Amino acid sequence: MLPLVYRCQHIDASGPAAGNKYLSRSVITQLADYSADLVLMQWNFGKFDIYCEQQEFADEIVNGTGIRNFLLDIHTGKTTKGPGYWCSSIDNTVEWKKYYNEKIKSRTGTAVDDLEAMLNLQNLCARKNIRYKFFTHDDVNHDFLSDNKHTRPFYKEIDWNAQAFDSVRTMYESHESFEFDTSGQVREFHWVPNADFQYFFLTEKLSTLMAELGVESKTVPNLKTYCHAKTLECYARKT
Fold first, then answer.
1. Radius of gyration of the chain from Cα atoms?
2. What would the pLDDT profile of 177-199 be if each residue is shown by its tens digit?
3. Burial class (CB in 10 A: 0-12, 13-18, 19+), 21
4. Which residues pair with 203 in a beta bridge?
5. Which DSSP symbol is given to 199?
6. Through-space distance between the first and last CA atoms of the chain, rounded to whole angstroms
7. Model confidence, pTM
């Protein structure tokens, strides 16, 4: 919804279920062809992003029964049947992924990959004189990243002052829409925040960054009302 609220050009280089490795590579790919005044990242730690080039393995994913049974073309951000990136986390519906999760996956190794991906993009933005800001989906475990001898060297190189906002989880859980539904029950946290929160994020959290860039906001009649109606619809389906 960014172009709805602000007078700017915007390229979305993200992808469904994408982790730091895919996100970093995707933005770097876009910056090879486009210039930018600002790169704003939502980093997602702990994901599993792997490029599947052999069709045999791509077919196993695409024909799987899990909710992550798709690959992403990093140049378009669209789904593909292969080759492409598999962005996933704990989906064990493919046998070799189940083996990886249970026998190979390492919290430390994954964290190193996450930090390295952040550092690659941070350094590229610095070299190209592009303003770089980020936030995260979940709160960052700074104690683990700074104490672990394998993650510490990467952690120290991250410009944590570039973090623009609290994590999505923290912002969302403190937003009034988080505990609202038609039955009065506390709403379970969802990975995709509701439309009320997304409107709040666009119009309030992003407004300072946009103003600093000289980007004008737009008045969109009934957008807030529409977002609230979509939120009510979401809750109604769950009751």
1. 19
2. 776 543 445 445 455 678 899 99
3. buried
4. none
5. H
6. 27
7. 0.89
